[in-house]
Amino acid sequence: MHNRYYALRHGESEANAQGIVLSDPAAGEAGYGLTPRGRSQARAAAEAFAGEGRPPRIYSSPFLRARQTAEAFAEVLGVSEVLVRAELRERFFGQLEGHPSARYEDVWRRDEEDPGHTDWGVESVVAVLGRTSALVAELEATRRGERIVLVSHGDPLQILETGLRGLNPAAHRSLPHLSPGELRRLAGRAQG
Q1: Which helix (H) or strand (E) holds 68?
Q2: How far is CA 8 from CA 78, 118, 141, 163, 172, in A?
Q3: Which sign does the torsion angle of CA 156, 14, 65, 76 carry?
Q4: What is the DSSP string of 118-182?
Q5: N or C: which terminus of the chain carries fewer CB neighbours within 10 A?
Q6: How many Cβ atoms are within 10 Å of 25's Cβ, its own excluded?
Q7: What pTM was computed for the model?
């Protein structure tokens, strides 16, 4: 890979604190931002990242909780621009919107059986992998030797990680779960 990629899951959000599924862009882009703890998590991730070299290029989901995480992360690092990309949006959970977050388990069990399923109107693992991988492919074609931080949500980031590792995307829950505000190196080494 031509760039070095990092996944940053948004910090604790109001939806996390309430224990609800919030995946509809109409609600998630306008509300349900970070809690004070979530803001602290974003800053702590940036402080840990600060000694890694030159400032990164930061791309964010359009959801408020991710944008606020990206902005707090960028501020600590002195990065003036956060680039918002729809490819990093939350996975849509359809009819489970507003339900208790325990319902994620139902979806994840089905994901293991069939990564193309759309039960309950959810966005399939295959679709999430397609959109997140398309962004990485674009960045690989247009950028060289950069550190790129992708600020998104648990499922999109873990699904992308399976793709970058060459794993079956149905196994996305077998990877270590990204905690709120966690930063993880995804794949590849910068070249050039």
Answers
A1: helix 64-77
A2: 17, 26, 22, 17, 16
A3: negative
A4: -GGGPPPHHHHHHHHHHHHHHHHHH--S-EEEEEE-HHHHHHHHHHHHT--GGGGGGSPPPPTT-
A5: C
A6: 14
A7: 0.95
The DSSP-derived string for 86-118 is GGGSPPP-GGGTTSBGGGHHHHHHHHHH-TT--
Average pLDDT over residues 40-64: 93
CA distance 129 to 29: 21
* C-alpha–C-alpha distance, residues 116 and 119, integer Å: 9
The two tokens of residue 37 are 């703890």
| Residue 11: strand, helix, or coil | coil
Using an 8 Å Cβ cutoff, are 52 and 90 in contact?
Answer: no
Cα-based angle 168, 174, 175 (whole degrees, multiple of 5)? 95
Provide the 8-state DSSP code for 20: B
Gap between the Cα atoms of 155 and 159, Å rounded? 6
What was the pLDDT predicted at 72?
A: 98
> For the segment 141-151, what is each residue's pLDDT rounded down to a tens digit?
999 999 999 99
* Residue range 135-174, pLDDT digits in tens: 999 999 999 999 999 999 999 999 999 999 999 999 999 9
- Contact at 8 Å (CB) between 184 and 7? yes
For the chain, domains (ranges, CATH) are 4-185 (3.40.50.1240)
Q: The tokens 């208790």 sit on which residue?
A: 100
